[in-house]
Input
Amino acid sequence: MSAARDIHFRCSACGACCDSPPAMSLPELFEHEDSFVGCIAIHGGGDTLALRTQGLERGDAGCPALDADRRCGIHTRRPAMCQAVPLDPTRPDAGQAALLEARRRQAPYAMAGCITTQATPGSRAMLIGGALVDDGDRRALARYREETARDRALWGEALRAELRRELAGQPPLGGYRTIPLVPALATLAAASASCRQRVLRYLDRQRALIARTPAAARPAELQVYARVYQRLALALQSARPAPPSPHAGAIEAHLRLAAAA
Ligand code: SF4
Ligand code: SF4
Output
């Protein structure tokens, strides 16, 4: 299947592609701490073991940010992954044309008719001659990639190395396994007193979100998340203050602490 050289796009915000919580950087999970229960998704094994942070899938399917009319309740602040739709920032730019071609033919995009090879009323050009042409699209792709690269540098690579050691000798994981954010949060909280305060606030908000999640939407592991987050909060509250880490400034900037102050 050869990819179309020109692609136009018009989103009617029908919500059909919002069938699960999106992948988000850790700062985005902090920003949306009242909407998504954050988790780390792990897949593969050995050299191919990969991690990403995202909202935990709910028992009732669908993204928890969808409102009763199936509109995005956080549209103006939606995560970079959603701003990039129907592109995918986890793929290189060279792979976006093939992705758009595949999505153009696949549900839910095909049913919505939002990806077309010809301009339609209200559409905008996304790909011309096989190249991305919209600055907003480029910014959304770049934002996701930059923030997840910082996540990898600040805590992700160390966790990946630890998991590779733990899973050595086991077959690669089929599909994704999700775990609470505890290892990432513990690393970030250790960076400085303000990081610890921010992580404590996040743990508080996540436990409150879990407590108000309706039973029908509650995946079985949610109670485990509530327990381990409470345990981490108690450990952080009782820990003796340590000197700030050499990465404190970078981590505080990554968590947007100055912006939140
Ligand atoms: S399926 Fe298409 S039109 Fe509907 S919300 Fe997704 S991108 Fe927009
Ligand atoms: S955050 Fe909004 S745009 Fe993104 S998947 Fe959820 S409802 Fe859809």
In short: The chain has a mean pLDDT of 93. Strands lie at 7-9, 38-44, 50-55, 115-116, 124-128, 131-132, 173-179.
